[in-house]
């Protein structure tokens, strides 16, 4: 891969990132041209320079950060045309580790390594064996969308994130085909960082355990009362109200137990779906 691909990919990413923003719901905080304050502070420290507002970010600083922290992290110079830009854009928005995981999972059975977000020999071997880069870009983009939908801020930024991924997908496929008929466009809200730290929490199984335990408890009480009823059979008045109570407890206990089992199934299924979307489990 030619080194010059970095400049072309960066130009597109900068269109998506826009200028200075400080959205209260953006987990990245104050951001200028896609560079958050925390990242800029770290860069300045590495150069023995005093920290300052990211609003004062210079073009050379910006390009150096993008090159080292994102492009080099995904080994962009070694990725196929089009795929390099798609993975690069994902790295900028959600972190290199996450974007590499999307690539690894998108490679499917051709990839024989761990889904670890570390690009190496196994990833490149799988890329070498993958000829249809259009389909690969589609799968990467699909994985990215599944991840975004699993984040807490999704309801707020769904429109911007979705349109950004659509544009990145189209640009990547155009590049892979050697076409120049698709351009990057800026979409308000699309620059908001989308990171694993803001993942939705899986539902707790505690309510299911409580419901199941309550159902079992109610059933136990019903059984005790049934024994008591047998002992009080000669006293019909007492026997009648105990019969009614036994039925109520038995029905409610069965309902609680069934509800608990159903919720536990839901919680387990939802947790598995979130883990898959967040690439916390192998494909």
UniProtKB/TrEMBL annotation:
Domain TtsA-like Glycoside hydrolase family: 11-95
All copies of domain Peptidoglycan binding, residue ranges: 99-164
Extent of the signal sequence: none
Keyword Nucleotide-binding: no
Keyword tags: Membrane, Transmembrane, Transmembrane helix
InterPro entries: Lysozyme-like_dom_sf, Peptidoglycan-bd_3, TtsA-like_GH18_dom
Membrane-spanning intervals of the chain: 241-263
Pfam families referenced in this protein's UniProt entry, alphabetically: Glyco_hydro_108, PG_binding_3
Keyword Transit peptide: no
Name of this protein: Uncharacterized protein
Species this chain originates from: Sinorhizobium meliloti (strain SM11)
């Amino acid at each position: 891969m030619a080194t010059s691909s970095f400049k072309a990919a960066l130009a597109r990413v900068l269109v998506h990132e826009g200028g200075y923003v400080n959205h209260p719901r953006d987990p990245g905080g104050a951001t200028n041209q896609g560079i958050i304050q925390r990242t800029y502070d770290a860069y300045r420290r590495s150069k023995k320079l005093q920290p300052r507002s990211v609003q004062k970010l210079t073009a050379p600083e910006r390009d150096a950060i993008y090159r080292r922290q994102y492009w080099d992290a995904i080994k962009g110079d070694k990725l196929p045309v089009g795929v390099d830009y798609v993975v690069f854009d994902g790295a900028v928005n959600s972190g290199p580790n996450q974007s590499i995981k999307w690539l690894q999972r998108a490679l499917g059975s051709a990839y024989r390594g761990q889904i670890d977000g570390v690009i190496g020999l196994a990833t490149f071997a799988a890329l070498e064996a993958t000829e249809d880069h259009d389909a690969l870009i589609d799968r990467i983009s699909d994985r990215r969308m599944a991840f975004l939908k699993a984040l807490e801020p999704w309801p707020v930024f769904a429109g911007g994130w979705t349109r950004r991924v659509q544009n990145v997908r189209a640009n990547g496929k155009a590049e892979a085909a050697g076409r120049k008929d698709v351009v990057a466009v800026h979409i308000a809200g699309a620059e908001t960082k989308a990171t694993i730290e803001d993942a939705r929490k899986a539902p707790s199984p505690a309510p299911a355990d409580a419901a199941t335990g309550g159902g079992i408890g109610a059933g136990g009480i019903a059984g005790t009362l049934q024994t008591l009823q047998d002992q009080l059979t000669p006293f019909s008045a007492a026997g009648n109200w105990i019969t009614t109570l036994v039925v109520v407890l038995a029905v409610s206990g069965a309902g609680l137990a069934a509800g608990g089992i159903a919720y536990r199934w839901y919680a387990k299924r939802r947790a598995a779906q979130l883990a898959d979307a967040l690439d916390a489990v192998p494909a």
